[in-house]
Amino acid sequence: MQPHATRRSFLAGSSLAAAAGAWRAGSMAGAPRATTLRAWESSTSLAPGVPGVDYAPVITPNGTTLPHRVVGGVKVFHLIAEDVLHEFAPGMQAHCWGYNGRVHGPTIEAVEGDLVRIYVTNRLPVPTTLHWHGLLIPNGMDGVGGLTQRPLQPGETFRYEFEVRQYGTYMYHSHHDEMTQMAMGMMGLFVIHPRHPNEPEPDRDYAILLSEWKLEPGTRRPDPNEMVDFNVLTFNAKIAPATQALVARTGERVRIRIGNLSAMDHHPIHLHGHSFLVTETDGGVIPAAGRWPEVSLLVPTGSTRTLEFVADNPGDWALHCHMTHHLMTQMGHDVPNLIGVEHSLFDEKIGAVVPEFTNVPGDMPRDVVSDTPTDQAGGDDSVPANSLPMISTRGPFGYVTMSGMFTVLKVRDQLSSTGEAEPYVHPPGTLADRASAEQMRADGIDA
Ligand SMILES: [Cu+2]
After folding, report:
1. What is the pLDDT of residue 11?
2. What DSSP line would sit under 117-139, residue for residue?
């Protein structure tokens, strides 16, 4: 597709790609913008980037992409802020606030140089706004209630419109009564693809938004007043075992974009079995010489980080936050420390008066053992209504003792015709198991 002649391309004197590259380089060095245009000067335009032609759409596990239509060369989107009954995992639901029937909202995708027009309708009982986090746009489109615009009253629809002048991983979220509205789920991802990629695009492009919630067992509304003790930690608003796995074929290049809009926490996201390069922040692309290898990536709140690697190690690899309490759903502070305590007599005595007490790890609630999704309120009284045991993820070797911010990267030499990963079969000699007495003797191990 041919870009139309534009004032910007005329001003730039050479190719738009070169202008954009120079601008990004300047931005990264903290230098003033090289372009002569200001954010409010609409200069465009390039033809709107077409999914599947100009870019490979991003995959938002457990999520979706916001549809758009093109009207007069402008990409038109519509977000509806509304009450959503959201399921964190089978057995745990809450009345949250989201967009277009989803928590979090659908991922918005665009291409550098696109003109986007985003209608926002407020169907909540309270005023709200939308902020485009990290985007370099005119001040009056920035969505900060009271500062850059008046809030949308219930029932109102506002129009946000701007040219997308950068690429990378960004976010959108309410910027009015932030503490409450973000705690209720009002956020989503905003992914922008480069117009002219100057490095190969990955084979798999995943996006995950981190957030945290307070949901007392037995309640059905997130509590926005919580400051410290968040007890539901989510990848794309889901907790394991409901988090969708990431899949890759051996040898494919994988990108994972991670945004964090948690109220109070940073999350070190750890990937097993691979090392990756940190390639982008929401401030821009990291030049090749400045990229560094990691196996855990700290994603501060209010930031995005992007990592890339070659999936060269087949298997089921954990991808999780390394803060161990962020893997524990609805854990409380009041749990006594029973390490070293002889349980059996204790269990017997307490069990006589509180039968469900004996339903502790190792003796899981029936519905979880059978892997049958169930609403705990619907009859199984082994955990409080509308809550889940902390260890409820079933793996091929038993329970995975992680919930919350945990999912799996499945790397396989072959995928099924529908792109699914079959159960992993460990090659001989590559699975840890009980040691043979014979080998221990031969190695001088006395156990
Ligand atoms: Cu964390």
Report:
1. 33
2. EEEEEE-SSS-B--EEET----G
Mean pLDDT to the nearest integer, 276-296: 97
CA of 301 to the centre of ligand 1 (A): 10
Structure token pair of residue 410: 């499945």
The continuous run of DSSP H or E covering 351 comes out as: helix 343-353
Mean pLDDT of 119-135: 98
Q: What residues flank ion ligand 1 with Cβ within 5 A?
A: 267, 321, 323, 326
Report the separation in Å between the CA atom of 170 and the middle of ligand 1, taken as the mean of its atom positions: 19
Q: In this structure, are residues 52 and 201 in contact, taking their beta carbons and an 8 Å threshold?
A: no
Compute the distance from residue 350 Cα to the ligand 1 centre, in Å.
Answer: 34
Give the separation between CA 341 and CA 248, rounded to whole angstroms.
44
Calculate mean pLDDT across residues 146-168.
97
Centroid of ligand 1 to alpha carbon of 298 (angstroms): 9
Q: What is the pLDDT of residue 139?
A: 97
**pTM (2 d.p.):** 0.84
Cα–chain center distance at 28: 25
Residue 241 preceded by cis peptide, ω within 30: yes
Verify cis geometry, omega within 30 degrees of 0, for the bond prior to 104.
yes
- Residue 121 sits at φ, ψ, to 5 deg, of -105, 135
For residue 267, the CA-to-ligand 1 centroid distance in Å is 4
β-strands 315-321, 267-271 pairing: antiparallel
Phi, psi (5° rounding) for residue 31? -80, 160
Distance 409 CA to ligand 1 centre (A): 18
Q: Which residue has the tokens 């696109």?
A: 114
